[in-house]
Write a structure and sequence with these properties.
The protein is mainly alpha-helical and about 260 residues long. Helices cover about 60% and strands about 5% of the residues. The protein has a 3-stranded antiparallel β-sheet. Strand 2 and strand 3 form a beta hairpin. About 35% of the residues are buried. It is a multi-pass membrane protein.
Length: about 260
């Protein structure tokens, strides 16, 4: 599944200040800037060319990425790497895939949570996702980088907060046809794919799918605990039921429908 996006009802012109009033866009910008100035982008001539670039990339990832077996060495330094690794990406495709999902799903989640809570949620969920992978593969010496654990947490929270939002996705196995589905179908399908892929041999290099699974689960559970509606007292429920007529119900349903993208 590639290129998911939410379709708003009406386009809005936004200034630069308005764009960066959302922490989602700030996080995207940070990831892009860190990647461009790093050795993986190939745009920074300070790292040289050929073998020199490869060596610089290896050293860069080892410094800022997560190496599971080093987390349990007793040194406090490696315990910070799950935070720094969230802003490091290994390739253009890795970066663009992550920022696309964050752009699509992060804005609405941030609007619901608030700027500061969303930022803390993003960082903590990403940290736990990478730590979860490292705990499951404690002896691994492979370097783990990328924001996908945190973004998976955003997807999990989005599934609980906006299950009926319409998501347009392009599926390669369906000849790249753009199709619209409720978010709960798209995200559950994505989660199942990550779960299946997480069963592969962890000793081979590739995508850390288990970090996606952990991040998604943490994000969904957080949203479920934090934002589930509180049950109203029986007396208030009965009184409210007696006062609402058919016109009031219709107005409420129309308002709820308009809040969906």
């Amino acid at each position: 599944m590639t290129a998911p996006f939410l379709s708003p009802r009406t386009p809005r012109a936004r200034s630069v200040l308005t764009v960066f009033s959302r922490m989602t866009n700030v996080l995207i910008a940070l990831c892009c800037v860190v990647f461009v100035v790093g050795p993986a982008s190939g745009l920074n001539g300070i790292y040289g060319t050929g073998d020199a670039v490869v060596q610089a990339q290896t050293a860069y990832f080892e410094r800022w990425g997560v190496i599971p077996r080093e987390l349990w060495s007793g040194s406090p330094g490696p315990l910070l790497t799950p935070l720094t690794a969230l802003f490091v990406h290994g390739s253009w495709l890795h970066l663009l895939g992550n920022v696309l999902f964050l752009y699509v799903f992060g804005g609405m989640a941030e609007d619901r949570m608030g700027r500061l809570p969303f930022t803390l949620f993003y960082l903590v969920t990403g940290y736990l996702a990478l730590m979860g992978y490292a705990a499951a593969h404690a002896s691994s010496g492979q370097t783990l980088v990328g924001a996908s654990g945190a973004i998976s947490g955003v997807l999990g929270a989005f599934l609980y907060l906006f299950p009926k939002a319409r998501v347009t996705s392009i599926y390669p196995f369906l000849f790249f046809l753009p199709l619209r589905f409720p978010a709960w179908i798209v995200l559950l399908f994505w989660f199942v794919l990550q779960w299946i892929a997480a069963q592969r041999d962890p000793s081979t290099p590739g995508v850390a799918y288990l970090a996606h699974v952990v991040g998604f689960a943490v994000g969904f559970l957080y949203a479920w605990v934090r934002y589930r509606p509180s049950p109203a007292p029986p007396g208030e429920t009965a009184a409210a039921t007696g006062r609402v007529d058919s016109a009031g119900t219709a107005k409420q349903q129309a308002a709820e429908g308009e809040s969906q993208p």
